[in-house]
């Protein structure tokens, strides 16, 4: 019963609306520019190459994990287990070196394999048993966290650690593996993840299908799209990226602390959601996620420079997320 | 007695003059039909009357006194109520019928009271239901009700408040024959209680059954207002279209080929029982049945959307594996589902993305990369051939009218080029002009040698477009009929369980 000619949503006074549209599309980027301006004014060293590299390095792990979340969001799913998966991968990759003296390839592939098993369990329970994704991945989050803790016996794994039998661990972390967490490799891995997923989601058939499923699952199914296959793929990719995040983390810190990956879940979710509005995409997208992660990274870095105590950092982070969500959802309401 | 008059109502949206100097009247104790093709401005006019828009010009008067309607609350204060077509959007499913009926009071009239008196609430609600002769317990949960019952709950809610004018927006579209009769009984009772009813519908015979006056709109203007006794169905259609409707249905394709689709002893878990049918190439076969006969279930089972528990489906003599719609599409089936917005189209996506959704593999280059240029070219082609009224192939589908959305739901399968096309109530919520386009589309498919299944409870359509008809009753095909040798009465006889 709508009018045959479309009613453009902009029924209100035109000018104000366009201004709002502008802020919706470019608000996140403007915020980043404003923050850079403010921080540079306060601390001229903020804009130095060295510090910019620092920021990029510090956001790379969050971005990689957030890219995985973005994929699960694109099929209108949600994966809460990515933080735990990162922790598990971190523990496995370090233990492979330190406890079992394995080479780099074996270490990395064991970590990825473990993550894929989690991805399979997640997707089967979501797709076949039809447990709501948020609840199921909340459950697996606890399970994986527990498995990682049990595996490390609640201890931090590091080179030359004391083993339960009183001897020292003899395994060494390989030179090649140490490189992963260093500039420029860590930044290149992040960039590669962003570009690959951006291309996947926007330029391939598979990405289009994923967005279609995210938009209207029933219509997608009745269009003959193999919905379940794509959902399984999305959760596998989500776990895979979480695992890569965990491996990069391992290389950076060279240890496996308990629950090391947990904090990345919330930052990753924040980055992905902030990314919704970037350039007016209105849906989860890889490039937006990167912008979201950059925003969080700049905030964190700048606030440290301005000597804001770390314990009040979360207040600012949360406020920025709320602001970004306000932009997205205020728009959606129209 | 009260008389509602809308005078010289105009409203504009950027680029579109939606209403142009429209007059409308409604009198208490009478049923006034408001008719028009999709996009004629009926909904917009009613939105003005219920306070959803504020930037209109013109005036609203009740009994000669000008009233200011600039918010939904103003409309309610004047006793103007509306029952929308989408009943689920305004009901709370996990509250009881009584709570839903008296929701307004529970929300706005509690004042300082903190406790709900359940006994009085249910007494009051039961009384309201009894007054209207509605057989639903006040203590039942709304989630357990049928669609028709939900509608009645909404009417009861409207009447529970002060209600002088009640707008029913396409109330019968989702109802079965029996449910429609029940609704009309209630409408007549309200009429006797001196409520003015504004009745919007696409089903013209109904309007002549229940209404006293009729106003016809076209392109945002009022084209006619008269007593129903002075009008006729053909006259109304002429007024709606602005021209005489010569032939609604295209000629039936006489040349049918070999049997293309064969269904043997099909059953599903719930509804379909031991059902058999055949469709030849170039043939349009109707599935006639009332709401609830199992037509939709049959369509979905054939399309692999619900599991087959027994029986075979053969295409050109070859047995099909119908594990999911994905498999069905790959083997040459296409379904245009009944619930367009929920199942057929992607409202958030562009026209082009919708059209290519079922055949995206055609528009890919190496490594599954999308070929957007080819997608655009094909989309424009389909937009042109189907006459889809859209500003561009990049417009979002949610801004288009029902008829155009349906054309898109069909268009996506034209690109997929299937062998068997299944249509489930394809004209639901579609206006007369677009209906004709859709009939021609379906007929053109048959002429190209496709097999077409046409499931509908609109018997005149079945008679107009099909070669053969199967009548469904309670999950079975009870009768097979040659279309030229049957009548609407006969279809109704078998579909109500007659033997």
TrEMBL record, chain A:
UniProt xrefs under InterPro entries: ABC_BtuC-like (IPR037294), ABC_transp_permease (IPR001851)
Membrane topology: Multi-pass membrane protein
Keywords: Cell inner membrane, Cell membrane, Membrane, Transmembrane, Transmembrane helix, Transport
Residue stretches spanning the membrane: 23-43, 55-73, 80-100, 106-127, 134-152, 183-201, 232-254, 260-279, 286-304, 310-330
Main location: membrane
One cellular component term from this protein's GO annotations in UniProt: plasma membrane
Top-level division of the source organism's lineage: Bacteria
Localization of this protein: Cell membrane
UniProt cross-references to Pfam families, sorted A to Z: BPD_transp_2
Protein name: Monosaccharide ABC transporter membrane protein, CUT2 family (TC 3.A.1.2.-)
The organism of origin for this protein: Fictibacillus solisalsi
Lineage: Bacteria, Bacillati, Bacillota, Bacilli, Bacillales
Automatic annotation (TrEMBL), chain B:
Pfam family, one: ABC_tran
Gene3D superfamilies in alphabetical order: P-loop containing nucleotide triphosphate hydrolases
Ribonucleoprotein as UniProt keyword: no
GO MF entries: ATP binding; ATP hydrolysis activity
Record GO cellular component, one term: plasma membrane
Ranges in coiled-coil conformation: none
Compartments it resides in: Cell membrane
Membrane topology according to the record: Peripheral membrane protein
Domain of life according to the entry: Bacteria
Keywords on record: ATP-binding, Cell membrane, Membrane, Nucleotide-binding, Repeat, Sugar transport, Translocase, Transport
SUPFAM superfamilies registered for this protein in UniProt: P-loop containing nucleoside triphosphate hydrolases
Domain ABC transporter positions: 4-244, 255-499
Keyword ATP-binding recorded: yes
Protein name according to UniProt: Simple sugar transport system ATP-binding protein
Organism this protein belongs to: Fictibacillus solisalsi
Classification lineage: Bacteria, Bacillati, Bacillota, Bacilli, Bacillales
